Amino acid sequence: MTESGAEKKEYGNSPGITGEAAEKLRHIGVRILSAARDELYFSMRFMDVALSSLAYQMDASVSPFGTDGAILYFHPRQLGGLLRENRILVNRGYLHMVLHCIFRHMFKEGTEERYWNLSCDIAVEHIIDGCDLRPVRFSRSLLRRETYRKLEQSGHVLNAERICRELKACGLEEKELKALEEEFRTDDHRYWERQGKDGKSDPELSRKWQDIDEKMQTDLETFSKEASEKSGDLLDQLRVETRERHDYREFLRKFSVLREEMTADPDTFDYGFYTYGLSLYGNMPLIEPQETREVKKISDFVVVIDTSMSCSGDLVRKFLEETYSVLKENDSFFRRVNVHIIQCDEEVHTDVKITSREELEEYMERLELYGGGGTDFRPAFARVDELIRAGEFSDLKGLVYFTDGYGVYPERMPPYRTAFVFLEEDYRDADVPPWAVKLVIGREDITD
Predict the structure, then answer these.
(1) How far apart are CA 448 and CA 443, in angstroms?
(2) Looking at the structure, do residues 199 and 306 belong to the same domain, yes or no?
(3) Is residue 125 part of a domain?
(4) Phi, psi (deg, nearest 5) at residue 180
(5) Could you tell me which residues come within 8 angstroms of residue 24 by beta carbon, excluding any fewer than 6 positions away?
(6) Residue 361 lies in a domain
(7) Which one, of 368, 398, 392, lies nearest residue 304 by Cα?
(8) DSSP state, 232?
(9) Domains identified in the chain, total number
(10) Separation of alpha carbons 237 and 350, rounded Å
């Protein structure tokens, strides 16, 4: 029997394999993958949709398997070899590829492809190695244990983006980089470049996996809490991946107020009457624009900086610089404002009142941080309450508290809007009260 063109395309270039033999190999491969899927499902029922979302296709050019988010491609002989060596390797490989899809690694662009591919593999292998589940339990090499130890020193969730930054900062030599690639390589990433038409990412497929991601997180936080304890830091990574991203400028605008400002209002300017007056009288327009206009800008506002030992000085300065870069813009600031910048750890150290752009610039030039103790959010809120009672604010719209989240929160909801802000580099899942906004911002989300 001779292979058809379609069969050759599906099975790859495999000399000596007829269509009938190839179909048998495909059938065996599908059975192996289906068995791995079922075994994973019985231990990780919260992943039922994710595990069943990939179709199977044989491809002799892949080594040993890979996925593009829609299809799981496998090499029949190599897949059989993994099964003969240890079926756990097949289970781990299957879960490895599904986790790539859940975190949408193939839809994201790394700054350097080689580092990005390695970081994605380390991220999902770290989750799998942290799972206390029999279908994926496997001994870890010394290199793997040492790599995890170094990366875990920061105490942050090890998602692919963070691992990529850490690896680049290490300045790895070629020999070290190759050793890590050999250790953590599980699947073939060649299909990551073939998303959608013309090699572009498929937004519908990405949204599909995002929906699966969000449903898994909800399940782990509610019905499958016991399972989440045995799944390593999977839940933490899901939280990082599904968190809502924010534009910092747009966020600050939520604290703005509507007020008249002395400036021409072009919206009230009628060029028809203006030009008619000039043509009729020579130099006398019939109408002029209003000299005031209603605008929404920041007026009464409080920024609190956590200066405890757990919140690094460099991080605090970065946040203040980015806040300053937003507030100093003409479309964000009234000419006269009432902004208080409070530094607090377990007690209030400084409270500086800013009334103009010039004072804000002077504060940033002479910025000095005070503190270094524990973290208690209550003194800052008590200080703001004192200012309100003293009539310091006429219309306080909100308070933004920059922190790492580890501290004592107020028990009662204040009469103004409150947001606790975390920079992505220092983000840990914090138990923010339900009456406050939890905002996680990355460097790319903040205006430079």
Answers:
(1) 8
(2) no
(3) yes
(4) -70, -40
(5) none
(6) yes
(7) 398
(8) T
(9) 2
(10) 36
How many degrees, rounded to 5, is the angle at CA 337 between CA 433 and CA 379?
A: 35
Rounded distance between C-alpha atoms, residue 19 and residue 423, angstroms: 56
The pTM (predicted TM-score) of the whole model is 0.62
User: Which of 75-84, 130-139, 264-273, 332-341 comes out lowest in average pLDDT?
Assistant: 264-273
Residue position matching structure tokens 């007690």: 347
Q: For 430-448, write each residue's pLDDT tens digit.
A: 678 888 887 776 655 544 4
CA distance 122 to 115: 10
% of residues, the chain, pLDDT over 90: 32
Question: Does 347 share its domain with 434?
Answer: yes
Are 253 and 217 members of one domain?
no
Instruction: Answer yes or no: do 365 and 417 share one domain.
Output: yes
CATH of the domain at 434: 3.40.50.410
114 and 21 assigned to the same domain: yes
**Nearest-angstrom CA–CA distance, 69 and 201:** 11
Q: Which residue has the higher pLDDT, 392 or 276?
A: 392
pLDDT average, residue stretch 279-292: 58
Between 72 and 311, the more confident residue is 72
> Which two structure tokens, joined as six digits, stand for 66?
């890979």
The torsion angle over the Cα atoms of residues 308, 310, 316 and 319, rounded to 10 degrees, is: -120
Q: Is 343 inside any structural domain?
A: yes
Do residue 206 and residue 307 come from a single domain?
no
CB atoms within 10 A of CB 319: 24
The pLDDT score that the predictor gives to residue 260 is 41
Residue type, 49: V
As beta bridge partners, residue 408 has 376
* 1: three-class secondary structure by DSSP: coil
Q: Of 160, 178, 45, which is closest to residue 108 (Cα–Cα)?
A: 160
Q: Give per-residue burial for 246-274: e unless 16+ CB within 10 Å, then b.
A: bebbebbeebbbeeeeeeeeeeeeeeeee
Do 354 and 252 fall within a single domain?
yes
Whether residue 281 is contained in a domain is answered as no
| Domain, as residue range, for 322 | 248-261+298-445
CA dihedral 205, 207, 209, 212 (to 10 degrees): -140
Contact 63/188 with Cβ under 8 angstroms? yes
CB 292 within 8 A of CB 361: no
The conformation of residue 409, written as its DSSP 8-state character, comes to P
Is the domain of 418 the same as that of 355? yes
Measured at the alpha carbon of residue 128, what is the angle toward residues 124 and 129, in degrees to the nearest 5?
115
**Interatomic CA distance for residues 398 and 314, integer angstroms:** 25
